Amino acid sequence: MKRFLVAIDGPAGAGKSTVARQVAERLGLTYVDTGAMYRALAWKALRDGVDMEDEEAVAHLAESITFTLEPNGIRVNGIPLKDEIRTPQVSELASAVATMPKVRKILVNKQQEIAASQSVVMDGRDIGTHVLPNADVKIFLTASIDERARRRYKELTAKGIPADLEALQEQIRRRDENDRNRAYAPLRQAEDAILVDTTNQSVQEVIEVILQHCRNKLGGEE
Ligand code: CDP
Ligand code: CDP
Q1: Could you read off the pLDDT of 155-169 as tens digits, one per residue?
Q2: Under 8 Å CB-to-CB from 58, ≥6 apart: which residues?
Q3: Which of 42, 105, 191, 193 could form a disulfide with 93 if both were Cys (CB 3.0 to 4.6 A apart)?
Q4: Which residue has the CA at smallest separation from atom 19 of ligand 2?
Q5: Annotation-wise, does 183 bind a ligand?
Q6: Which domain holds residue 29?
Q7: Which residue ranges does the record assign to the Cytidylate kinase domain (predicted)?
């Protein structure tokens, strides 16, 4: 069977990983969380004491790492990473290393290699525009900043982690700005992407909308 590629992009907290994971499961495709790769790289650089302002050093580290993407997480050189890559510090650092063209080229290569041999649902910021420009279905997920910050707040407090809603709004605003304004491969909606505003939609509703677009495409190719 021909590979089927689904690209899901959008800003932080839009619901990309939550819906992409479940869409992949429902369609029997591999889920690829590219944000986890930028996060895992930032985490490893922090742990190894790599200077995060030194693009060459971070790119060298990115090249030498083995990333293993699994349905519920990522491994770096075999080590499974979970909550340690979701801290505010790692989020900020991931967003900073993601502005470096040399680093992006290396991670994009690895992402394209994964999609070269199998059908995937891949989520990130530049999947529809850059990583998989020929994806069969491209979705651009958004939601208001207030709603995205509320979602993060709920996630953290549900885990018993104290959170400050205003600080979360500020952090999301800063990361949005970084992601949208970087010179190389910024976050933007691909011309042929379908815009889905999830502000007032449940996770299940969003999943159904995306599945319907995928089925239409699959049906059209039979
Ligand atoms: O989950 P959240 O949306 O907060 O972030 P993420 O998807 O885990 O991505 C973490 C950071 O990596 C983002 O702030 C982006 O700066 C960067 N990223 C990127 O530049 N390109 C991608 N394809 C995926 C993530
Ligand atoms: O990957 P991204 O940063 O875009 O978002 P996420 O990590 O999937 O987090 C989104 C959070 O908002 C999760 O806790 C979801 O349960 C919740 N949520 C959602 O994803 N989509 C909705 N339509 C409503 C809530």
Answers
A1: 999 989 889 999 999
A2: 41, 45, 50, 52, 97, 100, 102, 103
A3: 42
A4: 15
A5: no
A6: 5-210
A7: 6-215
Q: Candidates 31, 33, 43, 125: which one to mutate for ligand 1, based on the most atoms within 8 Å of Cβ?
A: 125
Q: Evaluate whether 114 touches 24 at the Cβ level (below 8 Å).
A: no
Number of domains the chain contains: 1
Asked if residue 222 is part of any domain, the answer here is no
CA 18 to each of CA 32, 57, 58, 84, 110: distance values in angstroms, whole numbers, following the listed order: 12, 32, 28, 18, 22
Question: Is residue 217 assigned to a domain?
Answer: no
215 inside domain: no
User: Which atom of ligand 2 sits closest to the CA of residue 148?
Assistant: 12
Q: Which has the closest alpha carbon to 213: 140, 158, 155?
A: 140
Name the pTM for this structure: 0.95
- 189 is a domain residue: yes
CA 37 from centre of chain: 8
Q: Which amino acid is at 17?
A: S
Ligand nearest to the CA of 15: 2
Instruction: Assign residue 56 the CATH number of its domain.
Output: 3.40.50.300
Structure tokens at 126: 């530049």
User: Quick one: which atom of ligand 1 is closest to the CA of 10?
Assistant: 3
Going from the Cα of 55 to the center of ligand 2, the distance in angstroms, rounded, reads: 31
